[in-house]
C-alpha cells in the first residue's frame, strides 16, 4: 500500500482505487475478484515502482509485487498483504531456478543432479506441459498453483482468464508421481480438462486481439 495508507488489503480499498501491476495475469485475477477496482500498468524495477507509489502526486493506492523481490531488496516492511492461492495463482515456473547445460555434457548433468530439487522439477514439468498443451505464452493470463506432498502426490491447479477477468475456467488434477513423465502427463491431463471447459476459446480470443492490435499499428509480422 501507499506509505501512510490506512488500508491493508485489496478488500479494504474504496471503489475506484487504482492498483498498479505490470502483469496481465495478476490484473485479470484481481479484476475477477475485485471488479470495483481499477488497474493500471506500473513499470520499472522494484525501487522505482515503490517510489511511483509513494510520490505525492501518485495515482496508485497500491501496487502488486512479488514478495520475494521485496524481501531481497530489504523492503519486507512494505508488504501489507500476502496473496494466497484463492486470490492469486502464480505464473508457470515462477520462483524456480533452472540451469542450462549442453546435452552431451554428462559431468555437468551429474553435478546438476546433486543440487537439483526433485519436487521442484516435478512441479515445473507439470506446469510447463500444461502451458505447452494450452499453447499459451508468458504474457497470457494463465495461473497455476502446484504442491507435491510428502507421499509424492502432485496437486496441480490452474486457471485461464480473459484479459479483463470477466471469463475464466479453472480445474485441478491429483496424481501419484513415480517419475518425471508422471508430472509431464499431469500437466497434459489438466490442460485437456481446461480446454474442455472453454480455455482454448478464451486464449484464441486473446491471441486474435493481439494480432488485430499489431495490424492496426501497421506491423505485418507480429512476434
TrEMBL record:
Pfam families, A to Z: Porphobil_deam, Porphobil_deamC
Location of the Porphobilinogen deaminase N-terminal domain: 7-109
Enzyme class, broadest EC rank: transferase
Pathway: Porphyrin-containing compound metabolism; protoporphyrin-IX biosynthesis; coproporphyrinogen-III from 5-aminolevulinate: step 2/4
Domain of life: Eukaryota
Domain Porphobilinogen deaminase C-terminal: 123-195
Listed PROSITE patterns: PORPHOBILINOGEN_DEAM
Cofactor(s) needed by this chain: dipyrromethane
Gene3D superfamilies the UniProt entry points to: Periplasmic binding protein-like II, Porphobilinogen deaminase, C-terminal domain
One Gene Ontology term, aspect cellular component: cytoplasm
Leader peptide range in chain numbering: none
Keywords linked to the UniProt accession: Heme biosynthesis, Porphyrin biosynthesis, Transferase
EC number of this enzyme: 2.5.1.61
Cross-referenced InterPro entries: HemC, Porphobilin_deaminase_cofac_BS, Porphobilin_deaminase_N, Porphobilinogen_deaminase_C, Porphobilinogen_deaminase_C_sf
A GO term for molecular function: hydroxymethylbilane synthase activity
Record-stated family: Belongs to the HMBS family.
Name listed for the protein in its UniProt record: Porphobilinogen deaminase
Organism the protein comes from: Pichia kudriavzevii
Amino acid at each position: 500500500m501507499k506509505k501512510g495508507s490506512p488500508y491493508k488489503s485489496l478488500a479494504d480499498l474504496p471503489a475506484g482505487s487504482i492498483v498498479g501491476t505490470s502483469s496481465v495475469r495478476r490484473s485479470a485475477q484481481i479484476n475477477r475478484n475485485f471488479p470495483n477496482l481499477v488497474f493500471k500498468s506500473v513499470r520499472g524495477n522494484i525501487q522505482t515502482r515503490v517510489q511511483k507509489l509513494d510520490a505525492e502526486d501518485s495515482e496508485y493506492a497500491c501496487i502488486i509485487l512479488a514478495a520475494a523481490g521485496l524481501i531481497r531488496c530489504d523492503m519486507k516492511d512494505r508488504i501489507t498483504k500476502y496473496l494466497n492461492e484463492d486470490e492469486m495463482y502464480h505464473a508457470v515456473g515462477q520462483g524456480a531456478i533452472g540451469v542450462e547445460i549442453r546435452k552431451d555434457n554428462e559431468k555437468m548433468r551429474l553435478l546438476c543432479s546433486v543440487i537439483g530439487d526433485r519436487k521442484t522439477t516435478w512441479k515445473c514439468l507439470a506446469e510447463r506441459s500444461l502451458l505447452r498443451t494450452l499453447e499459451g505464452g508468458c504474457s497470457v493470463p494463465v495461473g497455476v498453483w502446484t504442491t507435491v506432498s510428502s507421499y509424492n502426490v502432485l496437486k496441480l491447479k490452474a486457471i485461464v482468464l480473459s484479459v479483463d477477468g470477466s471469463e475464466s475456467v479453472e480445474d485441478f488434477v491429483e496424481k501419484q508421481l513415480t517419475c518425471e513423465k508422471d508430472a509431464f502427463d499431469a500437466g497434459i491431463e489438466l490442460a485437456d480438462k481446461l480446454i474442455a471447459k472453454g480455455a482454448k476459446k478464451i486464449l484464441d480470443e486473446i491471441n486474435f486481439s493481439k494480432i488485430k492490435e499489431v495490424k492496426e499499428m501497421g506491423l505485418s509480422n507480429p512476434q
